[in-house]
Here is the input.
Amino acid sequence: LKGHNGSRAVSGSAGEFAELITNVNQVVEFDGYYISEHPSGLLEGSAQSGYCVVRAICALSGNVVAIGFSHGRETMEAYRMALFCMAVNKVKFFKLFGAELKPGDWKSEGLSGDVVLDKGPAATFDCLPEIRWLGALELTPTYSGQSKASVESSHPRDKQPDEQPSHFHSDKNFISLARRELYQVLDDNKTSNAKNRMNDDMVLAGVRPTPEAIWDYWDARGRNSSISMEFDTAVRTFLTPIPVPITRDAVYLHQRKYRSAALVATGVFDRVARHGVIQATAYVLTMCVRHIWIEVQGLLYELDVMRSTKTVEHTIDITLQDLSILAQLRRDNEAMLRDENPATTHFIHDLHEQATGESWDGGVRKRGPMPKNTASRMDKADHARATGKAR
Here is the structure.
């Protein structure tokens, strides 16, 4: 009568997933949730559509080991961003969003060989190329939250009052909300109650009942299944590839300039100046385009956005989608200018003719070079006297 899920909810527990796991990062569960706030738009500051956050939870400790973001809905890009976050050093990951993190505040680094994904956008994850580090991939059944209970139970939740429907318009844009969620991970790891994950030895050792403390306890005993991956490899593996042109002065992504001293030292801009534009592939962290990565002669270079004295700080940290919108606005403005210029020029020429009674380009074309006869010398002398330059 109650159905499978309903009967399970009122049945006795068969135990916790953590009871079958021995190491941290041995099994990691991924899932996404939506922030209830509506971020402010880049141009007008209006309320934008939802914001999805994907987090990865260590099944043994409950520690949040990765986070990713996406516009509007849950996407595969958000899961790949979370995998990138899980693989790299967290101090570096914070820096990519323009935030700072002390080395000891989020210690987890490295991939898990056993990942549990939601049967949604993550079902399109192509696991074959990842076989060098991925040992097991599990897709949970639909409408089965208990199949990844660790991550489901860690999601932030808002109370739903029985009042008139309303929405909260945040004063933060997409990047500012992403930074806040990064710090929310630190708070959850340090303050969440993980007492059910504690054993007697941990209690006797004085371990605090938090995910971070439990992670540190097992990690100090070598019980860590993390698989290391070089940063450059993680960039090539998980970030979004986008074609970009290399011109004589910079690498352009949606008309925004990027370069670095290391890339200049390769001489690639000199080669471009001699042979024209070179098409290349850049790797992009879609939710923050403060930095991009480009491969030249087999080496990966991290490029910074080029700033001028007129650059406003908040325009540096925007998403790839916002950057593409800006590029489209630039193209629209250029097209509008091309359409308006002939009419504007004609209007100015008419103003000149009405004010002076003379044609804008009136005159006669004659054969041969300009004459230097007596009449020409007299006109030159008259002009000099009229302008006060006569000697």
